[in-house]
User: Fold these one by one.
Assistant:
Number 1:
Amino acid sequence: MELDDHAEDLASDLGVDKEEVKSDLQNLIEYSVPIDEAKGSLRRKYGDGSSGGGSAPSSKEIGEITPEDGNVTVTGVVLTAGERSIRYQGSDHVIVEGKLAGETGVIDYTAWEDFGLSPGDTITAGNAGVREWDGEPELNLGESTSLSFSEEPLDVPHEIGGDAQLADVQTGDRAVNVEVAVLECERRTIDGRDGETEILSGVFGDESGRLPFTNWEPAPAIEEGGPVRIENAYVQEFRGVPEVNVSEFSTVSELEREIDVGTDSTTMEIGDAVRTGGVYDVCVVGNLIAVRDGSGLIQRCPECYRVIQKGQCRTHGEVDGIDDLRVKAILDDGTGTVTAVLDDELTEQVYGGTLEDALEQAREAMDQEVVADTIRERIVGREYRVRGHLSVDEYGANLDAESFKERDDDPEARARAFLQEIDGVDDREGVDA
Ligand SMILES: [Zn+2]
C-alpha cells in the first residue's frame, strides 16, 4: 500500500483531515518508524474510538492476547528491557523495548514512558494497548497505562535476560546481548539525521554464525577488533538481512575469552528461509529449474553499475556499458523457490570459461544469448547447494551466492571416487555399506 492509501485509511477511521494525517505519517516514516508502528501511534494521537471505549480493559493471560484486543491488563515478568532513541515529530524520544513473559506465553512490548523496567521485574500493566506487528500482537505501555511492580515474583518458563547467539537473532529483536568476534570493521562517514557522522560497520561472528553490524557511536573495543560482549543491541533489517545495531544505549566491553567463529552456515528449507524475511548467511539445497533472463553475458552502466539493456541505463540514459558475467537461477526444493544470484567468478565456474571466452563465443554466434544458453545446458535440472545472503522483497527472494556447488559434489562422493580410482575397481556397494 502507498503512503497515500495508508493516510486515507487512517483519516476515515479516525475522522480527521487526511493531509494532516499524511504529513504526520510521512514524518514518522522518514525516521524509519515501521508503517504499522507509525499508524498505531497516530491512532493513539487522534484517539481511535475502536480501541478506547469506556469500559475497563479485561485481564488477559499473555498467551491469549490477540491483535484484535484493544486494551488489556496483563501480569508478567520482564525478560528484557532495552533503551533506544527514536525521533518522533521532530524530537528525540527514548523508548524501552523488550519481552514480557507470562505462564502461557511471551509478548514484545514498547514502553513510551520511563517506568523503570528491569529484567526480572514482575509487573502488572493496567490498560496496556495492543497493536499488531507482522501478524503478532505487541503491547504498548504509555501515558494511559498504570504500572505496578509485584513483590511476589511470577515463575515463568523462560530465561530472564537477552543473551543470544547470532544464528537465533531476528529482525525486530530488542535488548539483545551477544558475545562476538569482530570479523570485519570499517569507519565510515554517513549523512545521518543530524548531519555528517562517523559510524563503524562490519561483520560480527560467534560460534553459531555471522551477522553484519552498525555501531552508531564508534566503540574503541569494537574498532580494535574485539572480542567483545555487547549488551542491549537491537536488530533491524538493512538491505534485506538482519543487522545488529549497537547504539549509544548499548554497553560494549572487552571479552577475556576467545570466540571460535563457526564456519558452518545453517542449512534451511527454502520455504522456511524465505519466511524469515532475510538471513545473512544461509545454505539451501534445491533443484535448479530455470536460468532467468538477464543471465550470462550482460552489460552494466559505468555510473551506477546496474544492468543495462541495449546501451540504455534507466537513470543515466545512453552509456558505454561494461561487460560482465552473472547468473540468476531459480532454485526449488519443494517448499519454495529462490533466485540464486551468481557473481562473475561463480559464473565463470559454471560457464567453464572467462569473460573473454564469453565475448568470443558471442562474437562468433553474433548473439550474446548463447552464453546464457550454454550455462542453461550445464546447470538446469541439477541439484545445487547454495550458500549466501538471502533477502526478500516484494519481487521475491534473492540469494546472493557466496558458494554454489552441485549437490553430488559432497566430500563422501569425492572420497568414494578417490577410492575407486586407487583401487581400480567400481566397488560402490562395499563403500556405501
Ligand atoms: Zn546508470
Note: The chain has eleven helices and 24 strands.
Number 2:
Amino acid sequence: MTGPSNKTLVGTVALVTGASSGIGAATASALASQGASVALAARRKDKLDALATEIRGQGGTAVVLESDVTDEGQATEAVERTVAELGRLDTLVNNAGVMLLGPVVDAPLSEWQRMVELNVMGLLYCAHAALPHLLHAAEDSPRRVADMINISSVAGRVARAGRGVYNLTKHGVGAFSESLRQEVTTRHVRVSLVEPGATSTELAGHNRAEVLEIMRSQFTNIELMHAADIADAIIYIVTRPRHVAVNEMLIRPTEQE
Ligand SMILES: NC(=O)c1ccc[n+]([C@@H]2O[C@H](COP(=O)([O-])OP(=O)(O)OC[C@H]3O[C@@H](n4cnc5c(N)ncnc54)[C@H](OP(=O)(O)O)[C@@H]3O)[C@@H](O)[C@H]2O)c1
C-alpha cells in the first residue's frame, strides 16, 4: 500500500474543452498530474488520443471525447459522457476558442460566425449542460466545492481596433461569468475568469495571411507565455480551499505593454 497522496485533486473529475492543443492540452495534463480524472474534448481525435496516452502513461485517468462544441447536441453529450464514464463532474474548463482578427470593414462574415459560435455559444452550451453536475458536486463531494473556469483574454478587458468581434466574444464571456458567479457562488460553485495575454499556441495560426503579417510585427520582440503558464494559474484557482474563490485572473507576458 502506498502512503497518503499529496495530489490535491485526487477523486475529482475535470472536463477540458479544446484539449487537443495549447492551453487546453497543458491544463488537462496539469489537472491530471494533480490527480484529477480528465475528459478531453475537441475535434481532432488523434491529438486527444496522444494526450490521453501520455496521461495514462503517468498513471492518470483520461477519456477522449471527440466533439465539436459549437453543436449543442455534441456539447451536451461531452458533458454527459464525462459524468457517465468518470462518475461525476467537479471542474469544467471552458477553453475552446478561436481568434480571427482584422478590420471590421469588409471582414469575412464567416469568421465572425465561427467566433460567436465557438467562443460564445460553445461555451454557453457546455456551461448549461455542466451546471447541474457542478451544483451536485458542490453539495455532495468530499471537497464540497466545484469550479467553472471560463477562458477569456486580455481582449475581454481591452478593446482595440482590428479585433472587434474577438473583443465582443471575450467581453461577453466576462459579463456572463460575473453574472453566473453571483448566481451560484453561495452554492459553492466557483466561476472564475482567466484572461491570458499573448501565449505561444496554435491560436494565431488560423488567421488570414495579411492579418498574420500585422500580428507578427506586434509581437516579434517579446517573450511570449507558454500554455503551461496559464495551466499553472488554473491549477492555483481550482486548488484553493473551499472558502476562497479566485474570481478573475489577468495574466500577461512581462514584456507585453
Ligand atoms: N494563445 C493566446 O495568446 C491566448 C490569449 C488569450 C486567450 N486565449 C484563449 O485561450 C483559449 C485556448 O486557445 P489556445 O491559445 O490554446 O489556442 P489553440 O492551440 O488554437 O487551441 C484551441 C483549442 O480549441 C479547440 N477547438 C476549436 N474549435 C473547436 C470546436 N468547434 N469544438 C471543440 N473544440 C474546438 C481546438 O481543437 P480542435 O481543432 O481539435 O477542435 C484546440 O484544442 C481560447 O479560448 C483563446 O481565445 C489564448
Note: The mean pLDDT is 96.
